[in-house]
Amino acid sequence: EAQVTQNPRYLITVTGKKLTVTCSQNMNHEYMSWYRQDPGLGLRQIYYSMNVEVTDKGDVPEGYKVSRKEKRNFPLILESPSPNQTSLYFCASSFGGQKNIQYFGAGTRLSVL
Amino acid sequence: RKEVEQDPGPFNVPEGATVAFNCTYSNSASQSFFWYRQDCRKEPKLLMSVYSSGNEDGRFTAQLNRASQYISLLIRDSKLSDSATYLCVVNSPTGGFKTIFGAGTRLFVKA
Q1: Least confident of A38-42, A68-72, A87-91
Q2: What is the dihedral of CA B51, B56, B59, B61, to 10 degrees?
Q3: How many angstroms separate the CA atoms of A6 and B97, rounded?
Q4: Nearest C-alpha of chain B: how many angstroms from A109?
Q5: E strand intervals along chain B
Q6: Quick count: other Cβ atoms within 10 Å of Cβ A7?
Q7: Per residue in A46-55, pLDDT tens?
Q8: Which residues of chain B does A105 touch, with a Cβ-Cβ cutoff of 8 Å?
Q9: A45 contacts on B by Cβ (under 8 Å)
């Protein structure tokens, strides 16, 4: 089954404790992206990657890191989480290009205390 | 001004009603347009692409007006299961693959 898999689905952590949210896709997509969704603000792009070893900042990259060592995986790293990073996070993938129809993971609900 | 703007709603309509949503975008060079549907805090899923000639998928019709820079979604004969948030999505040529999501329009269909 074609899918984008995120883990964990739910996470409660404390300020400053490093965490990683994993994202994996099995559709051989070149393009992967991380978004956060907050009430009233919609989906905002954090980072994206157009291919292996190619990553770039989205609209809200501060406090986040990513890596793309393999085509299928695109982990999101919070080196020192803060309460303002409490949010719902989505990973997405696509073939890119002009159409760029994206397929989303089920989301990770993160709370930073 | 936001790059993609939508009326947040909520739109409360009875079953069987026809409802329309509009969305405006600011970048005239935007190349492709979509409507996604998102159920309560679940992942967004593609509803339909939007073409200049307009396109229809069952009870759903999407239109693009490039001159006025807006897209629309019309839902006919609303069902309870149509209750969701509808996201307007625009692909901009900026940065190669920039996808911009509107904040969404909430629809509640009531019996």
Answers
A1: A38-42
A2: 30
A3: 22
A4: 9
A5: 4-6, 11-14, 19-25, 32-38, 45-50, 55-57, 60-65, 70-75, 84-92, 98-101, 105-110
A6: 14
A7: 999 989 999 9
A8: 43
A9: 98-99
